[in-house]
Amino acid sequence: MCGIVGYVGPQRATPLLVDGLKRLEYRGYDSAGVAVMNGKGVETRRAAGKIARLEQVIAEEPPLGTLGIAHTRWATHGPPTERNAHPHLSHDGTIALVHNGIIENYSALKQSLQARGYVFHSDTDTEVLANLIQEAFAGNLEAAVIEALRQVEGTYGIAVISSLDTEKIVAARKGSPLLIGLGDGEYFVASDASAILRHTRQVIYLDDGEVAVVARDGYRIVDLDAHAQDKPVTRIEWDLEHIEKGGYAHFMLKEIFEQPTTVSNTMRGRLILEEGFSKLGGLNMTREQLLSVDNVIITACGTSWHSALIGEMMIEELCRIPTEVEYASEFRYRNPIIGPNTLCIVISQSGETADTLAAMREAKRRGAHTLGLVNVVGSTIAREDHGGIYLHAGPEIGVASTKAFTSQVVALALFTLKLARLRDLSVERGRQIAQALADLPKQIQSILDRAPEIEALAEEFKRASNFLYLGRGYNFPAALEGALKLKEISYIHAEGYPAAEMKHGPIALIDEMMPVVFIAPHDAVFEKVVSNIQEVKARKGRIIAITTREEPSLKGQIDYEFRIPETVDLLTPVLASIPLQLLAYYIAVKRACNVDQPRNLAKSVTVE
Ligand code: M6R
């Protein structure tokens, strides 16, 4: 989603800001801009479309100066045009502002500002804030920002500069991630550490309600009552190479191929094979607390919601604890039943998804113990949960989530194993699951080694207009995930369905034009899936099946078969998802789609 970069120091700001914006491209955006203090006033350059277009505009007349702010915008209020691109200037041009988030009461504020003579030049909610700051300005930028923020409702991560208070950037956060970077004689503001990692590893994450004043000679952080805040400095431990393609054509392909390693990293130091047990240091729950869990709610969005569905089945099967999965966006607005022994698991790759964060806060408010399964270290969910399990999958840059999904399923399996063994699960069964987890990296690699087979399949199906993905049990969520991957990056309409439920409607769609992907490992529901395959074949559907062994009853029924290794039922979605990710990837590439930055999508959805 939208990205923010700010810089103050001895270097020329514009190239540095543009470089930072490029590092944020993966988040999804549709226009971009910079504003730099040029010694006399604020100079802005903005462009609709990609950063390359902004660079052309800048090249015509580069703004000169050593302090500035920049932004990539993902349109919410108003189309992705140059006039709606950030930074936005206040009515008199003295304030420049970049903003992530949504000002919910902007319409009323705009009307009253217009009544007081303010003229607006964009359709955005952001411009309201620039004008409120101008109106409140009495010589000190942070005081004006604080005064303006008191009037707005909604969410924001902002960076503001002023030609009347020229030596500082003021940044503030409520509900939209923001950090400051501490360099050597220079300071940065960013919505994501990747924007500034070339320059510094030392960062301070702002919390909601905090305002940072960043100047050449240092920084200060205050709350909205101007009280100084003492904040810890965090060191970023990952490297720039993690956010580079490393020879792969796309980040998505790199991330698919990283999965033997990322899955190992999720398990590293956590699996005790001989005891069939797992060690999870960050749960912050005593044995007694774990044993007294009465029910589990898992909440998430998108791909993370799919892994949640797999987690639900694991926990119910092995721990025998009633578990429910909720879309975070629904959970937060319906009056959920949460008791003192409710455990709420919150799953998010980014740790910043607005709905997931709000759902977690709601669960906490109602007294649940919250556990975050999060990939991004230091993200808001990771900082606000009671305990959690980091995925350790490394930065995921491709908008379509791949390695985070497999790591989420593995983290859920580790958690289930621990909880189940504390309860009634036998050592033998625990060992079997632990061994199956340990075997996953090699098994994933063996699938990746056969990627060319999937590429050939993609060639066969690249012109399809619809796809159906069917699975049962643990592989119903895998079907949903396969369909989501395809539609996100290739723009082919795809639906995931429980294989038997297909008879209650989608079967009407099946004819010789309809590719149907079955996820059919030899698991507890295999025989049932065989019947569903026959039902589709009888209607001439073109069947692609992900299977684990030869099955006589399927002879002549399947058009394309791809075998994956066998594992315990609960881990089959990890292996099944690899060919599905590859299929979506290769089809999208063959359709000349922008795989890493699909249209309209954002990597991290930080608005409701
Ligand atoms: O960062 P999160 O895991 O909270 O993100 C949730 C969804 O926005 C995300 O999984 C989305 O569905 C991806 N585009 C899936 O590929």
Q: Which descriptors apply to this entry?
A:
alpha/beta; Glutamine Phosphoribosylpyrophosphate, subunit 1, domain 1; Rossmann fold; 3 domains; 6-stranded antiparallel β-sheet; 18 helices; 35% helix; binds 5-amino-5-deoxy-1-O-phosphono-D-mannitol
Description:
It is a single chain. The protein is of the alpha/beta class. It is globular. It has three domains: 3-236, Aminohydrolase, N-terminal nucleophile (Ntn) domain (Glutamine Phosphoribosylpyrophosphate, subunit 1, domain 1, 4-Layer Sandwich); 245-448, Rossmann fold, CATH 3.40.50; 450-608, Rossmann fold (3-Layer(aba) Sandwich), CATH 3.40.50. The model has no long low-confidence stretch (mean pLDDT 94). It contains 18 helices and 26 strands. The chain binds 5-amino-5-deoxy-1-O-phosphono-D-mannitol. Residues 301-304, 348-350, 353, 356, 399-401, 488, 601, 604-605 line the site of 5-amino-5-deoxy-1-O-phosphono-D-mannitol.
